[in-house]
Amino acid sequence: MTVIGTYAIRNSLSDVIIMLTLGVVGWLLNRYGFRPSPIVLGLILGPIAEQGFVQGFLMGRASGSYAMTFFGGPISITIIALSALSVFYPLIKEHRARRRGHDGGDSHQETSS
Would you say 91 and 83 are in contact if contact means Cβ atoms under 8 Å apart? Predict the structure, then answer.
């Protein structure tokens, strides 16, 4: 059904070949542990992000301050802080778990008479 649908869109055999090739590539990536959803998301959002970056770069160039264009607003500071938190949270969580393990986890035992 996908081959027929791919061919029916533009009546092009090259579209079918591209679909089959990308299907095999996706299957190989999935077999070796790569999930296809981040790859597809990157392919879709990449050009949009690039366009936004170029617009921001041009605005920074016009105002004379690249850093303030990208890092000066409250929304961008919030996004940067949340991104840093999401990157460092597993490390912080692991550090806290190790610290609890070294503090003597048996100190909370109840004694029964």
Answer: no
